[in-house]
Amino acid sequence: xxxxxxxxxxxxxxxxxxxxxxxxxxxxxxxxxxxxxxxxxxxxxxxxxxxxxxxxxxxxxxxxxxxxxxxxxxxxxxxxxxxxxxxxxxxxxxxxxxxxxxxxxxxxxxxxxxxxxxxxxxxxxxxxxxxxxxxxxxxxxxxxxxxxxxxxxxxxxxxxxxxxxxxxxxxxxxxxxxxxxxxxxxxxxxxxxxxxxxxxxxxxxxxxxxxxxxxxxxxxxxxxxxxxxxxxxxxxxxxxxxxxxxxxxxxxxxxxxxxxxxxxxxxxxxxxxxxxxxxxxxxxxxxxxxxxxxxxxxxxxxxxxxxxxxxxxxxxxxxxxxxxxxxxxxxxxxxxxxxxxxxxxxxxxxxxxxxxxxxxxxxxxxxxxxxxxx
Length: 374
What we know:
ABC transporter involved in vitamin B12 uptake, BtuC; disordered N terminus; 2 strands; mainly alpha; single chain
C-alpha cells in the first residue's frame, strides 16, 4: 500500500470530525438530561412525569406547539442581532433593555400615529426597530467616541431602560392607559386594537403570530448577508482581525456602530413583535411591568448555544422556547417549575462543552503534527 493510499482523504477526515461532533453533542445533552433527572429525584419528584409534562406543555397538548413557535420568534430575533454584533467583535449584552425600549417606542408611536390595521402593524414594527437601535446606538457612541467598553455600557443601560419604561407607564402623556379604559389601577399601556395586531392564523388547532415566518426569513437573510455579501465579509474581518481590517480600509467606527445598532434593532423588533403578536406571557397586546420577561437574556443564550450562527439559532431558539412554554405544566407534577431554569442552564453548558473539547483536541493534534515534522 502506497503512502498516498494510506493517507486519509479529505472526505474521510470530514466524516470523522462530524462523527466526533455528533458523539460529543449527544453525550453532553444526555449528561445534562441525566443530571436534571437526578436533581428532580433528589427534590422529591419523579423525572418521568416531569419530562412528560414538559413535552405536553411545549408540544403534545392541543395548541401547545403554536405557543412554542410564538415564543420562539422573539428569542430568534434577539439571537440574530447578537450574532451580527458578535461577528463584528462586539459584546452586546443589553438586549433586555433594547427590547423594552423597542416595545415602548412601538406602543407609543403605534398608538400616536394610528392608521388602518396593516399599516399600523408596520408602524409598530418599524418603531420597535428604531427604539432598539437608538438604545444600542447610545452604547455605540460611548464605545467609539469615549472608548467605554460596550460590554459594560449595554449591561448598565438595561437598568436605565427598565426604569425609563416604568416611568413612562406612570405618565398618561407617555404610555399609561387612561382611567376610562382600565378596570384597575395597574400601570399598563393602552391595548392595541384588534385590527392593529399581527395576524395569528390557526394551523391544525395551533395559533401563532406570523412574526414566526418573519423571524425565520430574517434568519436565512442574516446567514446569507454574513456569508455572501461584502458587508458581511468586512464585518467578519473586523471581528477576527481589527488591525488587518483597518489596513484595508474597513472603518471600525462605522461598521462597529452599524453592527451594534442593527443588533439593538433586532432586539427592538422582538419587543414590537411581542407587543403586536400577543401570546405567551407577552402582556396581552399592551406594555406591562416586566413586559420583556427575560426574553432578551434568553435570546443572548440562544446565540451563545448556536455559536453565533444564524441558521443554528433556529433550533436553539425552539428548544429554549419549549422550556419556557413547558415550565407551566411541570408545576402540575408537584415539582417547582423553576426546575426548567436549571435544565436550561445545564443544556447551555452541555452545548458549549463540545466546541471547547474540539478546540483542545485540534490544538493537541496540531502540536503533535508539528513535533512529528521536526
